[in-house]
Amino acid sequence: MSFSPRRRVQLLSLALGVSVALAMAPTAAQASIKNPTTKSVLKATQKAMSTVTGVHIYVLSKTGKDSSVVIVDIGATYGQETIVSGKEHVKITVTPTDAYLSGSPTGLTTIMQLTAAQAKKVGTRSVVMKSGTAPYTSFQGNLTTGVLASILPAAKGTKFAVGGGAHSKDYQLTWKTAATQTAPATKSVLTISSGSLILPVREVITGTSGGGTTTFSKWNERVTEPSPPAADTIPYASVVSSKAG
Length: 245
Known about the structure:
Blueprint: H1 38-49, E1 54-63, E2 66-75, E3 79-85, E4 88-94, E5 98-103, H2 105-111, H3 116-122, E6 126-130, H4 134-142, E7 159-162, E8 171-177, E9 186-192, E10 200-207, E11 210-217, E12 233-235, H5 236-240
Parallel strand pairs: 6-12
Antiparallel strand pairs: 1-2, 1-11, 2-3, 3-4, 4-5, 5-6, 7-8, 8-9, 9-10, 10-11
């Protein structure tokens, strides 16, 4: 079995056409940027994200006739992600000691790329992956705060503007991603709050085959996630084993 986590955070999602306000816990004040530019906004945003304890992310995406919802809570050492696409669903939970994966049979095969035989082994249980293993490291890296830096584009090729968000002085970064053999060309617009905390509010992505919106809220939430009962888990090694189980 080769778990295939999708690209986290910068996911295509259906544009809702609504403004989303940041819901932040108290933290140290951060001054607004004087004479902002692409580079200074990116630098200030990255600095702000490096100090946060967590964030709630909601993604609604559409590609052709297919739509999906992704809900993510990213914390310093805990994280959880739920993916729903039609009747398919999976849930990933990360704790400091283990990572867990569960879902519908088709969710495990279609979204996470398990084989049908492996999904059958899992059944209604959660696959448990221990800290220090490659599968754990992959999920832990995608669902804890270290991943937040990947939200931001490179300064080169990114256009900067003021306005267009929930507030007239919010910052907007716009860039294009060229098409590849597996993905179409897209245009991304990331809105960043110009308030006391310079943090992302919303990203809108448009492309020839679909588009959507990712919204960010509850910056500095403290994320903790419960582990499933041991009786309801199955070790990763048992799932990947070629022996019947």
